[in-house]
Task: structure prediction
Amino acid sequence: MSERGSGINKDWVNAVLYDLLKVVYDGFGGASKFRCCIVGRGLLKDLVEKLNLDFSNLAIPEAAKRVLEALKAIGVIGGGDVALSDVVLDLRIHDCVHLPVQKRVKESKMPSFVCLCANLCLGLIEERFGLDTELIEINQEGGTCHIRAMLFKWD
Amino acid sequence: MEAKEAEVVLKVIKERRSIRKYKPDPVPDELILKCLEAARWAPTGEDAQPWRFIIVKDPETRRKIGEIARRGSGRRFSVELYTGKMIERLGAHAWPEEKRRRVFEKLASGKVSAFLAEAPVNIVVCADKNTWDPREDCSAAIQNILLMAKALGLGTCWVIAPCTDVRDEMRMKELLNIPEEYKIVSVVALGYPDEAPRPRPRKELEEVVFYERFGQKKEGAS
Result:
């Protein structure tokens, strides 16, 4: 017998996620992205253990790419690309299970203020590279979310 | 209350400024407590009185708060500048190039919020999360602090920078040993002002007041 909830309906999950995002936005408005930037980050520790992820000797883009590969391995995304230009990190995430949420957000008047996959990448960068990060924007087009974030190293 | 007293209240409200430069002179405890006495008389939903106030004078703790605020503001303003939203928000298109560069540099560096370290007193306003209106209640209390401080000849600035971002709020909570069941609503800088900022422009009443329905102007008004 399968574990209860193991085949949980994605539409249900995404509908709940959208509603929760709306609650957050109604409460925090434009500051919502500052309140949601750590959502999902707890998964990173589990992923590292489960998939034996090793980030040693990796530069920032490669480390972020490894996180995306791990998310692909567990079926969250179809794939992802990472680029770093000066202090701007560029993530392109394809076929994410939460794509319907971003689509609904885009259709509504809410700005897109959280990407759980990007949160994991940025969390890793903060933790392993000692940098601060800040989400710039999330743009969803077709099956891809394009996320940009800024990286900071303070004096 | 007489009309004359109402005018005094309005005068205090209108003459309050956000002060970011303070004299190093210490603020007597009785004045700080007078401000907090005003705070605890703020309106509060369900009589919850969710506020707790941490008076921080220790220079090292203030330095750390200032640093958290600096980094938080620096991150946010850098992104705003990068996307061009800051220019739009400040209406900076028309500014002379030199002014724009100076203001933007200050914003992106986060120095705009780092002054908390230099204010002789930081009042950290915390709220019991297990109440219905913690942010609203505490915001009313903060406004009372600002107005009482003004009436006492003190300067204040309501600063959200060290706690807008959940990561910074976590740093602040660790620094000040704030229990999980409380959240930080804001920090109020307090001290004797060493600047006299001009009033910032306000939207006219006609622009912000509607009648009976959102967007509906008074009959006969253009």
Observations:
- Strands of chain A lie at 79-85, 88-94, 132-141, 144-152.
- The first strand of chain A starts at residue 79 and ends at 85.
- The first helix of chain A runs from residue 10 to 28.
